[in-house]
Amino acid sequence: MKLYEKLADDIETLIRKGVYRPGDRVPSVRQASQQHRISITTVIRAYLLLESRGVVESRPQSGYFVSARMGDGGADSNELRTSRPIAVSATVDVSRLVLSTLRSIGTDDAVPLGSPYPDPQLFPYEKLNRYASAAGRKKSLWGVTNALPPGTPELVRQIARRYLENGMAVDPNEIIVTVGATEAINLCLQAVAKPGDVIAVESPTFYAMLHAIERSGMKAIEVATHPEYGIEIEALAKIIEAGPIAACMVMPNFQNPLGFQMPDERKRALVDLLAKAGIPVIENGVYNELYFGDSHPTTLKSYDKKGTVLHCGSFSKSLTAAYRIGWALPGRYRDEVEKLKFLNTLTTSVIPQLAIAEYLERDGYEHHLRRIRKNYAQQANLMKSMVMRFFPAGTRTSTPMGGYVLWIELPAKVDSMTLYQLALARGITIGPGYMFSVSDNYRNFIRLNYSTPWSPEIEQAVITVGKLAASCAK
User: Fold this and answer.
1) For this UniProt entry, which residues form the secretion signal (predicted)?
2) Shortest CA distance to 48 belongs to which of 57, 40, 38, 39?
3) Helix axes 233-242, 264-277, angle to 10 degrees
4) Which of 185, 262, 281, 317 could make an S-S bridge to 230, C-beta 3.0–4.6 Å?
5) Which of 368, 322, 462, 468 is nearest to 406 (CA)?
6) Architecture of domain 125-364
7) How confident is the model over 438-447, as pLDDT tens digits?
8) Longest alpha-carbon distance in the chain
9) Would you kindly state where each structural domain of the chain is located, as residue ranges?
10) Which pTM was predicted?
11) Architecture of the domain delimited by 91-120+367-472
């Protein structure tokens, strides 16, 4: 156990034993440093950890005080708690769990409530395949050089036009086409950090972000994240003050698994904070097109004045997952990302690029998106109402503003891995909370996918998972 973790545990024990009561001031950072003969930095990290657990709260120019929540036992509500903060630096190792979970999702006849992928029934595969077939017959495209970075001019142009249609002008020369958003995220991370560096992420966070950190030999530090407005900027600022952070990775729009849309003023504040600290931010925007509101959400990239936002996108969640086409807008790191793309995978397949470019130009992408958004919004409401009706008392849910996943907090006695195994034995998959963190703080959370059109089979599967959760809660 690290020194700051031990100090945090010791103080929390004193609080739970009543030595410090709600509202009491705990020793100042300087006092604690002198009492325990440890550095001020170590004390600050311990207090940040306590704050992330909800045990203490900071008051400007006054110090740290025992949180009032330590005395009320927590209020009951159908909504998620306003914050489930964590700030634990650790080497990431969740890939084995995720891989085994994804394999189970592919089981024949399994109900894919745990799938991270959108249901393909709403995607225009026949049209895309016709365009791909036509492109494949062109002998001029059979060589490798046609697919070299940054990507085919046809697709790059269409991506730039799509951003312009959504209110943000981008330089087409900045765009680099990748093998899905996963590669884009990995390349951007490699461009801004090195093995051993610490990367700040949301908590909970999408496991693809954790995989990128693990693959690069880096460490993740989790930052408290509000289920309605995103990463806690104040908590992030304190973490930055406490120790070196190489980069920040966030999903500000329809975050997986929480589903929130970060307000514009907080997006601007986050970009400003990181820019002043000289810290690049990798923005995962794969769900940006799947909004439930009246207008397309803004991006961190739209507030970037110094080129420190590396924005990543993909067609996998909105058009086709089969083609694995994504892209990056890496700002000042553009040349480095292009070089890494060449060194990592050399090319992105040219035929899928041309097929998507042709579809975007000819076949009404916006009409297709409106249909998906309407379906997902309706299914989100159905899923949430079914969960609140059939899951055990004390269950809380997120309120998705877009995307296709619902985050669910179950009673504390429920272990999501046990529930996962019980559901799988009945031909139903779920996403256990362990996948979304480097800690076990989400052991009683699950993620459900509502992209599949509602049916008696889906409805019965949700009811079954609710009954299983109730049995685990006893």
Assistant:
1) none
2) 57
3) 10
4) 262
5) 462
6) 3-Layer(aba) Sandwich (3.40)
7) 888 899 999 9
8) 78
9) 3-73, 91-120+367-472, 125-364
10) 0.80
11) Alpha-Beta Complex (3.90)
